[in-house]
UniProtKB/TrEMBL annotation:
A family per Pfam: Complex1_LYR
Family: Belongs to the complex I LYR family.
Gene Ontology annotations for the cellular component aspect, listed alphabetically: L-cysteine desulfurase complex; mitochondrion
Top-rank lineage group of the source organism: Eukaryota
Protein known as: LYR motif containing 4
Source species: Astyanax mexicanus
C-alpha cells in the first residue's frame, strides 16, 4: 500500500474514532467505537486497490453520517424529538446501505495492517 493510502486510512480511522466519541449517549458512543475498531480489524488484510478504494469511500460516507448524527442529536432533543428514535432511524438506514457489514458502511482497514 502506498504511503498516501496509509495516511488516508489512518486519518479516516482517527476521524471516525474522534466523531464516535462525540455521541452524547454512552450506549451509542461505545457501540460506534467498537464497530469502527472491529471493521478496521476485519479488513486489515485487504490488498486489492479497487477494494481498498471502495472501503475508503464507504468509510467516508459513514464518517459523514456520524458527523450529522452527532450534530442533530442535541438540536432534535431541544425540539422535543426522541434522541433514541432519531439515532435508531439513521443507524438502521445506514446499516441497510452497508450491505450487511459492520456499523454503517465502516469497511475500513486496520491501521495495524498497513
Amino acid at each position: 500500500m502506498a504511503a498516501s493510502s496509509r495516511a488516508q486510512v489512518l486519518s479516516l480511522y482517527r476521524s471516525l474514532l474522534k466523531e464516535s466519541r462525540a455521541f452524547p449517549s454512552y450506549n451509542y458512543r461505545t457501540y460506534a467505537l467498537r464497530r469502527v475498531r472491529d471493521a478496521f480489524r476485519e479488513n486489515r488484510s485487504v490488498k486489492d486497490p479497487q477494494a481498498l478504494e471502495l472501503l475508503l469511500n464507504k468509510a467516508r460516507d459513514s464518517l459523514a453520517i456520524i458527523q450529522r448524527q452527532v450534530l442533530l442529536t442535541p438540536a432534535e432533543q431541544e425540539h422535543g424529538h426522541s434522541r433514541h428514535t432519531i439515532q435508531r432511524s439513521v443507524l438502521s438506514r445506514s446499516l441497510s446501505l452497508s450491505l450487511s457489514l459492520p456499523f454503517p458502511s465502516l469497511l475500513l482497514l486496520s491501521p495495524g495492517s498497513l
